[in-house]
Amino acid sequence: MKLIRLIYASSLVEPMSKADIQQILAASQRRNNALGITGYLCVSPTHALQCLEGDRDSVNGLYNLIVTDPRHANATLLRYVEPWRRLFPVWDMGFTPDLATAAPDSARWHDQSGFNPYLVESDLVENVIEALCEQAERVELRA
Ligand SMILES: Cc1cc2nc3c(=O)[nH]c(=O)nc-3n(C[C@H](O)[C@H](O)[C@H](O)COP(=O)(O)O)c2cc1C
Fold it and tell me: 123 or 142, which is more confident?
């Protein structure tokens, strides 16, 4: 297996409802678990930031499915690397509900509407994600 870490940012068409989030996390628990993909998702009212880790073909396939979801647009790859280990080995999909307030407080990643994940440099995005996920709700199916 070739382990891949893919991190992307996207723009939400409208703020996600609780039902949207529940549906996404339920789908992730089913599909990501079956594919051996782990990861982390954070949303604000305007943006999503997601990390997917697993076999390269599985991650690419899942990413291609996720980007067709009409709830978001302008999915932009921030990072695509072959890491030596996973950042999120135990989460099918760790989740932080409020990217806007949980995000590290660096002015250069903020615009008028708050934290903007498109502004994060590729080589820093893993650090940002690690800081964010300290506040993640643990969705642990794979201890
Ligand atoms: C920002 C975002 C992230 C998503 N992440 C995942 C994911 O990691 N895994 C997944 O199966 N679906 C994810 N989805 C949902 C899928 O686009 C799709 O709705 C879902 O997989 C359909 O599941 P179903 O075929 O079981 O009904 C995500 C959607 C959005 C908007």
Answer: 123
Q: How far is CA 105 from CA 78, 98, 102, 132, in A?
A: 19, 14, 9, 11
Model's pTM, two decimal places?
0.93
- Position in ligand 1 atom list of the atom nearest CA 72: 31
Q: Does ligand 1 have an atom closer than 6 angstroms to the CB of 28?
A: yes
The pair of structure tokens assigned to 24 is 């996404």
In this prediction, residue 136 carries a pLDDT of 63
Domain spanning 3-133, CATH architecture: 2-Layer Sandwich (3.30)
CA dihedral 133, 7, 143, 3 (to 10 degrees): -150
Percent of the chain with pLDDT over 90: 67
Element (H, E) at 116: none
**What does the alpha-carbon distance between residue 92 and residue 78 come to, in Å, rounded to a whole number?**
20
